[in-house]
């Protein structure tokens, strides 16, 4: 009887991971994207401390801290640099 419980736990874990899925950013030609190094420099100039910076689909994704020291996860449009989705810990 332990197998059905394990399956239920795994299904629930998958469902919760889906709830925190990434953002949907508009697709742009790669030659139009802000260069990663330039964008990271811009973000640090705005006070962000970057722990992880990566491409997630058509978005740039930042994990780190904002200028107030709060943990952030932010998805940015790769051409405009505008935030598309963000989560900030209180």
TrEMBL record:
<dbReference type="InterPro" id="IPR025711">
    <property type="entry name" value="PepSY"/>
</dbReference>
<keyword id="KW-0732">Signal</keyword>
<protein>
    <recommendedName>
        <fullName>PepSY domain-containing protein</fullName>
    </recommendedName>
</protein>
<feature type="signal peptide">
    <location>
        <begin position="1"/>
        <end position="21"/>
    </location>
</feature>
<feature type="domain" description="PepSY">
    <location>
        <begin position="6"/>
        <end position="87"/>
    </location>
</feature>
<dbReference type="Pfam" id="PF13670">
    <property type="entry name" value="PepSY_2"/>
</dbReference>
């Amino acid at each position: 009887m332990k197998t059905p419980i394990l399956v239920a736990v795994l299904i629930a874990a998958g469902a919760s991971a889906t709830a925190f899925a990434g953002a949907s950013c508009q697709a742009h030609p790669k030659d139009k994207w802000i260069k990663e190094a330039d964008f990271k420099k811009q973000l640090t100039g705005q006070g962000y401390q970057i722990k992880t910076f990566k491409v997630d689909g058509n978005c740039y994704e930042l994990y780190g801290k904002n200028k107030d020291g709060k943990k952030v996860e932010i998805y940015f449009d790769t051409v405009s640099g505008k935030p598309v989705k963000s989560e900030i810990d209180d």
